[in-house]
User: What shape does this take?
Amino acid sequence: MKNRIRDLRAEHGWTQADLATRLDVSRNSVNAIENGKYDPSLPLAFKISEVFGLPIEKIFQKG
Amino acid sequence: MSRLSARACRIIAALGFWTLIALAVVTRGAGGLLLAYAAVIWLAAFSLQAWRSQDEFERAGQKFSWMFGGMFGLMGSLALLPLVTHPNVISPMLDWASGILEATDPVVPAFLLGAVYIVLGQLVGFLVCWVGWHVAKR
Assistant: This one.
């Protein structure tokens, strides 16, 4: 699954650690999700969409 | 009081467990057995706390590592059985275990060593897989 988290994070001027704090996960988790090495659970995906203020489908794409 | 991090819980779990096991080995007999039980309870309590403190990414790594690392560790320990049951290897270990347990029945140390051997095999498999999983997910 592809995602735009790295770009969105850069737009907000956040580090991986900043985003990790907002999501209440580790920085390693954010890094793995950004690199497409780990697909988040549905609850975490909803949390990510909430943090960026965007619908899930605008952040995650199939592929 | 703030909640301990998963890493801190894992370190406390491992240090406490091995300290109590070392004390059990030194104490021997019924007292040693009680210390060994305490070590297992300590490990379980802090492992549970570590599990609750970690996020879903880390939990996924743990599940994967116990599943595949544990399985391959078990298979590896079975594959090494001919080597570890060689008299030159097994006899000194049985003598050592008999001394610690102060058991008169030779079946007791043999049973204990067998159980520990399987657990160690799974633990080694888990650790190898856990490190590999984290490297692969970087």
Notes: Chain A has one domain: 2-61. Residues 2-61 of chain A form a domain with the 434 Repressor (Amino-terminal Domain) fold (CATH 1.10.260.40). Chain A has a mean pLDDT of 95. The first helix of chain A runs from residue 5 to 12.
